[in-house]
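P.,

For your records, the input lines for the assembly:
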Amino acid sequence: MSGGVDSAVAAARAVDAGYDVTGVHLALARNPQTYRSGARGCCTLEDSRDARRAADVIGIPFYVWDMADEFHAGVVDDFVAEYAAGRTPNPCLRCNEKIKFAAVLDRAVALGFDAVVTGHHARLGLDGLLRRSVDAAKDQSYVLAVLTRAQLDRAIFPLGDSTKAAVRAEAAERDLAVAEKPDSHDICFIADGDTQGFLASRLGAAPGDIVDASTGEVLGAHAGAFSYTVGQRRGLRLERPAPDGRPRYVLSITPVTNTVTVGPVEALDVSTVYGDRPVWTAEPWPLAGVECEVQLRAHGEAVPATVTADLAGMTARLRRPVRGIAAGQAVVAYRPDPAGDIVLGSATISATDQ
Amino acid sequence: MTYLDHAATTPMLPEAVEAYLSAASELGNASSIHTPGRGARRRVEEARESVAAALGARPSEVIFTSGGTESDNLAVKGIFWARRGADPLRSRVIAGAVEHHAVLDAVTWLARHERARVTWLPVDPLGRVEVGALHCALAEYGDEVAVCTAMWANNEVGTLQPVEELAAECATRGVPLHTDAIQAVGQVPVDFAASGAAALSVSGHKLGGPIGVGALVLSRDVACTPLLHGGGQERDVRSGTLDVPGIAAFAAAVGTAVKGQQEYAARVSGLRDELIARVRQVVPEAVLNGDPVQRLPANAHFSFPGCEGDALLLLLDAQGIACSTGSACSAGVAQASHVLLAMGEDADRGRSSLRFTLGHTSSSADIDALVAALPEIVERARAAGALRGIRG
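Structure tokens returned:
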């Protein structure tokens, strides 16, 4: 229970469904702020109080579990390390994978609980299949696709069949004060929303070269490679325009040489995506390849692809090229379905090919 | 519900509730000079005389406060400021290492914001403050010491402290000793005059009175700078309209607690010994912390090797058994107990502990419920502890 409206309504629905529910707020910040200021970040002491009050109204026990050390090691440090390695991480993937459905779940099971309920917008039916939420704009199946079969078997997502608006309306009906609380957005551990500043303070500014992909020429300088992501066009401040006069885009970031490589827009085209740390939960491993759709960004459209995967990794061959795919993000395979697109599996993007 | 957390708070005695309601129905500000005011004032003064008599003090030495935390803060900060104000050289505080946070945090605040220097008095493995350490500290810093503070009995592990000896040491150098007697009053004999202490804190809700009222017993010749300025109540040391119903209830509770102390101590220490024996029977590896003999009659504090304290609490709570880890809590997250750390325990042991405290409503049935639930709970909490790498 984060103190937000989704987890509050999820808890209430779980109680109605007949589960013996205990509410837990995760203390993840080493120095939690006292008051919520705006919608950025989570979770302040005020959020903890909001969660406690929701638990009161719902009528369930409430505890705060200190997972700050695990969160810092598994999510925050990983976030920084990924940027240092020239990738673009999605920390929510790691949090679900290592904290919410690992550290928290393991502790819960040790204490005699059977499952973890969260307010994620996704559907997980009795058939064990993870599907998109009915609310496409709020769907969080992308960040849940990192969960293994064992983790999904002990997860419950009560909100997937409702839109966000319906969830808020239900919260109001249930007299939950958090009904009107704004959703938190951006990264929960960067309260002021300044990701660049956060990374700069941890990685330090390390100026380096911006080089042309085809000629190797140095076209300009950057103040820190972590400020750039694949597909980026803004903020390059190149000394010389390209000979053809067309804009340049970031193609890759190389930490070892601390260079940012740029090229024309067509160089961004990717037709093959490679992923490591694969997870495949709906069916046996697609050793011979399966036709499906893949989503390559948290808020990106799914595109048709042929996916092969085994314990060693995943390869997705896209039907049409996609631009701006960054290593570190997830590649999630879906099978379109009228009852909700089914998550087949996922992997972390390690490399791409034109 | 099985309530084993009386050190946190205990049910209000019927006579205290009655005194509260009776006074609450009356109108009057005890500082007003007219008839209703004098009526209120009279209730306060009767309460003051009663509390003073119960604690071996003079009525003029009793200052009513909002509770134990305020009394501790008032004594530590107020005496420090007054003593340093009289002589700027006196800027050192000597404090026991196992004080409650209401004393500890007041001392560290003085260090951080008032440039106080602090000498912490170590404790032995049973949690008893070392008198020799105070002797040495006074020998070295005597003239620099503004105030010394050492509790009468430790609220976590229950160990009784050598207050009279500590007060005698302080007296040799003219240093005032404040003692937090919040857990002690009603459990062991507490006589302010006989102790030699200069100041003593009491809290109402720890002994069957209401939450929100307490007292600082302050020797007449010890100056104390107020925390609260205003109407000049409580001989200018503690301004604020007096909480007449609270004070009436407080006095009733103190009276009952002190009068019945000997009998209560005998009864509850019997129950406590039974609890200790039966817990050891079902969980042989449990370790009793604190002095086995010189301890509060109602206190039993155990470490359960390899188990996580908050997991134990959660599981006991689910079975309707209430107790505490006795450690500080910030935002609901338990920290390792500074008391156990000061006693030489490692951080893991400090997070694997539970405090069971009995009260005037406790019985053998409470112990039955506890020992029935413990074995399975300890097993689960050990599994949870293993996940966190807590060593047994």
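Two observations worth noting. Residues 364-387 of chain B form the longest helix (24 residues). The domain at 2-8+261-384 of chain B is CATH 3.90.1150.10 (Aspartate Aminotransferase, domain 1).

Regards
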